[in-house]
Amino acid sequence: MDDSIVTRMILSGIPIDEPFLQQCLCFMTNEERKGDHGQIQGKVLVYKHPGLHFGDMHVLNATYVEALKDYVGNAKYAIFFPINGPRSLADEIANRDYDGDMYWISRNPQLLASFRVSEPWMHKCSTGNVPSKSPANFSLDELEHELFQLFLTTRFQTSSSIGVAADNWLVFMDRLLTLPDDCIEEKECLKSKMLELTDIYYDALDAPKSGLKVNVPNELKAEKFPHFMGREDSYHSTSILGKFCDTVEHFQTEKQVTKGEDFLKPQSSF
């Protein structure tokens, strides 16, 4: 696989969770793991899905720690983040934590050389706190009932705000990718909306634990969607995302036509 394809896709603004890009990154990660044992050293790219913020991908410096050798041996599937600094790295990367989250790591030299660092995510808008009781304020029966209700709500009544925020973020990103360089004001407006949607998206992800009631305001909802999202009210996108979609659809159409022609060819046995 040509690593430059992945580099160009990322630099053109394609979201990391785009299916083809995810497949490429997984392939590259698996290739990097071959023959790779024990602690690694040097610059690495670190990302946590599903990060929407421009600064959710970090460049970190992996350091060999002799004191860890007796504990991890040749293990290669664990990350030890530093604990110094005013804020945890996990919080800076897609508002995550250290409760077993999976992170994507790459030492690909082309990606590292081309990567442009952005300021890490910082929560700027607030959906408001919801008053809630602590477990000590419940009786045993009440606490059991609350825990069951929380499980049922989280399992069977997932928040639509997650999908709404992510979809509209993608619409604004698609628009951002097609704007010329002189449209500075419109670009800044789109970025501002995307940052607000990022905050709402992360709040919605944590809503089952935080108790927040999260909604996406109408001013952050797009009127039309790019054609590659498969919505009825859509426009034909000319961004790199739209071009990928058109190429795939054209390839699939050609493949179907070829299959039909092969099926209609006379067989030599008749």
What do you see in this structure?
The protein has a 3-stranded antiparallel beta sheet. A two-stranded parallel sheet has the order 4-5. It has helices at 3-11, 19-33, 69-72, 89-92, 109-114, 140-156, 160-178, 184-210, 240-264; strands spanning 42-47, 58-62, 104-106, 225-226, 234-235. By secondary structure, it is mostly helical. 18% of the residues are buried.
Main beta sheet: 3 strands, antiparallel
Order of helical and strand elements? HHEEHHEHHHHEEH
Radius of gyration from CA coordinates: 23 Å
| Beta-strand content estimate | 5-15%
Distance between the termini: 43 Å
- Count of helix runs: 9
- Secondary structure class reads mainly alpha
Entry summary:
The protein is mostly helical.
Layout: helices, strands, pairs:
Elements (H helix, E strand, L loop, with lengths): L2 H9 L7 H15 L8 E6 L10 E5 L6 H4 L16 H4 L11 E3 L2 H6 L25 H17 L3 H19 L5 H27 L14 E2 L7 E2 L4 H25 L6
Parallel strand pairs: 4-5
Antiparallel strand pairs: 1-2, 1-3
Helix pairs in contact: 1-2, 7-8
Annotation keywords:
two-stranded parallel sheet; globular; single chain; 270 residues; mainly alpha; 3-stranded antiparallel beta sheet
